[in-house]
From TrEMBL:
Name this polypeptide is given: Villin like
SUPFAM superfamilies, alphabetized: Actin depolymerizing proteins (SSF55753), C-terminal, gelsolin-like domain of Sec23/24 (SSF82754)
GO molecular function terms listed in the Swiss-Prot or TrEMBL record: actin filament binding; phosphatidylinositol-4,5-bisphosphate binding
Compositionally biased tracts (Low complexity): 716-733
Calcium listed as a keyword: yes
Lineage, broadest ranks: Eukaryota, Metazoa, Chordata, Craniata, Vertebrata
GO CC term, one of those recorded: actin cytoskeleton
One Pfam match: Gelsolin
Region feature (Disordered): 716-769
Source species of the chain: Scophthalmus maximus
């Protein structure tokens, strides 16, 4: 180990799921705390660097991280965290926020004495998604109009809300103040709130602040930028082979994006660089011990050589233990022995092929996680209505032709189903590849009109021709046909794209996942893994590739009857008559390798807060996300790889809502793995989420937004309960004895009992419509020691 003075620094390492924290004290690793967290299926080691830490301390931390990684078998992912630039995963461990304390070990990691009240500090609280609190000078000079400040005086904490701070920030600050009270003071600290824009409504609290800070003599500073959004998604991803040559670090470029997994060799170590926004190190299983041991140091040396900021994110991982973010940078990635939901997805060429097991609607409704994995809200037995865009207006489609889509048209498909005895709607906007820009625009406007007729309830899904999602396939019961061009308008004669012959690829194993897609009538369009229908002026051939299954042949024959009532001549691959090749313009090479049938790996879902306020598309990732992370004032993007969900909060500003579709397209376009820009995009409104969305969240509460919450937290609404005696707070900066007031006739409740709770879960006496305005005063037995003043 590192020194004789600490022979076994890892003896306290727990093997159970949890979060353990150590500090570097006099170059030794000292255990600080432990709490249960996580599943135990994977491990992450984070080492955090304070802005005032010494180079020796940073070096010691890096050494201990490497040794701890070896102690745990080399499987953990190592993360380097720098104060103020922590990763979303690191921040997710501390839901109530991070507090940056002044000083070093002596001040930051001593045993907490819950009876110590000789404290005076000012905490500058920032952030809506990721909350941090930094100790600053106890002075009015530290304040500004946009942030929140906690004046901590031991027995009392005053929360001062900047006039330009918002509701979410205020609630986060309340939870942070409460966390300080409970963890550091044993629950024996009282909390008061001052609205900076209405200080006259809190005269007693302002007297306390003036006693500590002195009288304010001038205006406060203007608001400063809040949470820094994550850096612009960088498409410039490069893979480097890193090795030592006679003591010199050699960095050799291997490839640029999109990266593929086969570029990584088990005998080597590599660096993946996102143009300085993050640096990831991959250690092959067969790399030398020295190379694996030096991986972290080489990453730091690489950052220095590139003149990247010292706050650059660093991750180090071993082969087989790659992080989800690392896999996201690759065009394709597969893990040994992986499975996906209840079926297997294969990628053949550019089109996904899905084998689905059968399931019933009751199971989908009872298990939203299954609905999400299968991308199916129900069993597709609901009602369907289809319109076509004609002369930029809606024209109803004859139900006898439902399922027939032409590449020169745009369509709206309204699907209606029931969930929990309530009508639910999905509005698909299908865009033909050869539709005009005017028709595509009209389709979007007409969708808005239909949406308004149903009071905004429909979930809107943009569907690009050829990229139809699973549920869209299912609602047409195996009779979905995509024509390459032309129009379905009555009375219009569509010319054959290939005179004398038309070729259709028939793909699917059951009526829930089958469709026919028109291809160019050429031999090169064939694929050994599929069924094809070749229709000529005289004959219809049903061609079975060697790689297709019996179920695919059955469904191929069924959908071929939609295309032609003629008798079909079955042709097995390799036994084609001469007339077959003549109709296709002659023989030609085609996809005939069964190895094209690759398993499409599952990807972990990712949630982002979207923002383009700076003029560039930016996103802030929310790690370990939950329903409570969906902010009513934001547009959120949920990436499940096969689909993109845009969740629009009820209070999201008009500009963000309008730009939501553009944001999703920009996200796909700039994705470093070279994502398909035609990936289905699904727009979901707050309160109308389908199970294919809610299933990605643990313990989704359908009643969370059944009662609208106010948009502001006002001190004046609680003025009748804000009459503490002046003796409640210290009268001088030195503090002194503080005794809680026994006055009043009620108590305010713990915010965690009120926030993100359904009406049925609220404590008795709480008005659901006022719960987020500070827990409206409820008549329960008072306990002054636990008062929370808002």
């Amino acid at each position: 180990m590192m020194s004789d003075g600490n022979q076994d620094p890892f003896k306290s390492v727990g093997r159970k799921p949890g979060l353990q924290i150590w500090t570097i004290n006099n170059m030794q690793m000292v255990h600080a705390t432990y709490c249960i967290k996580g599943s135990g299926q994977s491990a992450d080691i984070h080492y955090w660097i304070g802005n005032s830490s010494s180079q020796d301390e940073q070096g010691a931390a890096a050494i201990y991280v490497t040794q701890l990684d070896e102690f745990l078998g080399g499987s953990p992912v190592q993360h380097r965290e720098v104060q103020g630039s922590e990763s979303p995963r690191f921040r997710s461990y501390f839901k109530n926020g991070l507090i940056y304390k002044k000083g070093g070990v002596a001040s930051g990691f001593h045993h907490v004495d819950t009876n110590a009240y000789n404290i005076l500090r000012l905490l500058h609280v920032k952030g809506r998604k990721h909350v941090t609190a930094t100790e600053v000078e106890v002075s009015w000079n530290s304040f500004n109009n946009g942030d929140i400040f906690l004046l901590d005086m031991g027995r009392a904490i005053v929360q001062w809300n900047g006039p330009k701070s918002n509701t979410r920030e205020k609630l986060k600050a309340v939870l942070l103040a409460q966390d300080i009270r409970d963890r550091e003071r044993g629950g024996r600290t009282q909390i008061g709130v001052v609205e900076g824009g209405d200080e006259r409504d809190s005269p007693e609290l302002m007297k306390v602040m003036a006693a500590v800070l002195g009288q304010r003599t001038g205006p406060l500073k203007e608001a400063v930028a809040d949470d820094k959004p994550d850096k612009v998604q960088n498409t410039n991803v490069r893979l480097y082979h890193v090795f030592d040559n006679s003591g010199n670090l050699v960095v050799q470029e291997v490839a640029t994006q999109p990266l593929t997994q086969d570029l990584l060799h088990s005998s080597d170590c590599y660096i993946v660089d996102q143009s300085g926004s993050s640096v990831m190190v991959w250690k092959g299983k067969q790399a030398s011990k020295e190379e694996r041991h030096e991986a972290l140091n080489r990453a730091l040396g690489y950052i220095k050589a590139k003149n990247y900021p010292s706050s650059t994110t660093v991750e180090v991982m071993s082969e087989g233990g790659e992080s989800a973010m690392f896999k996201y940078l690759f065009k394709s990635w597969s893990d040994k022995g992986q499975t996906q939901g209840l079926g297997t997805t294969y990628s053949m060429g550019k089109i996904a092929k899905v084998d689905q097991v059968k399931f019933d609607v009751m199971e989908l409704q009872a298990r939203p996680e299954l609905a999400a994995q299968q991308r199916m809200v129900d069993d597709a037995s609901g009602e369907v209505k289809v319109w076509r865009i004609e002369n930029l207006e809606l024209a109803e489609v004859n139900p006898s032709t439902y399922g027939q889509f032409y590449g020169g048209d745009c369509y709206l498909v309204l699907y209606t189903y029931r969930r929990s005895n309530q009508q639910q709607y999905i509005l698909y906007m299908w865009q033909g590849r050869h539709a005009t820009n005017d028709e595509i625009t009209a389709c979007a406007y007409q969708a808005l009109d239909v949406d308004n007729k149903y009071n905004g309830a429909p979930v809107q899904v943009r569907v690009v021709m050829g990229k139809e999602p699973r549920h869209f396939l299912a609602i047409f019961k195996g009779k979905l046909v995509i024509f390459a061009g032309g129009t379905g308008r009555p009375g219009v004669v569509n010319p054959d794209p290939d005179p004398g012959a038309r070729l259709f690829q028939l793909r699917g194993t059951n009526e829930l996942n089958t469709k026919a897609t028109e291809m160019q009538a050429r031999a090169s369009s064939l694929n050994t893994n599929d069924v094809f229908l070749l229709r000529t002026d005289h004959l219809c051939y049903l061609w079975y590739g060697k790689g297709c299954s019996g179920d695919e042949r059955v469904m191929g024959r069924a959908v071929s009857d939609v295309l032609s009532k003629q008798d079909k001549q079955v042709v097995m691959e390799g036994q084609e008559p001469a007339e077959f090749w003549v109709a296709l313009g002659g023989k030609a090479p085609y996809a005939s390798d069964k190895r094209l049938q690759k398993e499409e790996p599952p990807h972990s879902p990712r949630l982002f807060e979207c923002s383009n306020q700076t003029g560039q598309f930016r996103m802030t990732e929310v790690d370990d996300f939950a329903q409570s992370d969906l902010d009513e004032e934001d547009v959120m993007l949920l990436d499940t790889w096969e689909e993109i969900f845009l969740w629009v909060g009820n209070s999201a500003n008009q500009h963000e809502t309008k730009e939501a579709w553009t944001c999703a397209q920009e996200y796909l376009r700039t994705h470093p793995a070279g994502r398909d820009p035609d990936t289905p995009v699904i727009c979901v409104k707050q309160g109308s989420e389908p199970s294919t969305f809610t299933g990605w969240y643990n313990a989704w509460d359908p009643h969370k937004w059944s009662v609208s919450s106010p948009v502001s937290l006002r001190q004046s609404s609680l003025s009748s309960t804000m009459s503490p005696s002046p003796s409640l707070f210290p009268s001088s900066p030195a503090g002194g004895n503080v005794s809680p007031s026994a006055g009043g006739s009620g108590t305010f409740l713990n915010p965690e009992l009120l926030i993100d709770k359904s009406p049925s879960e609220l404590p008795h006496g709480v008005d659901p419509g006022q719960r987020e305005v500070g827990a409206r005063f409820c008549q329960v037995q008072p306990n002054p020691m636990q008062w929370l003043f808002l």
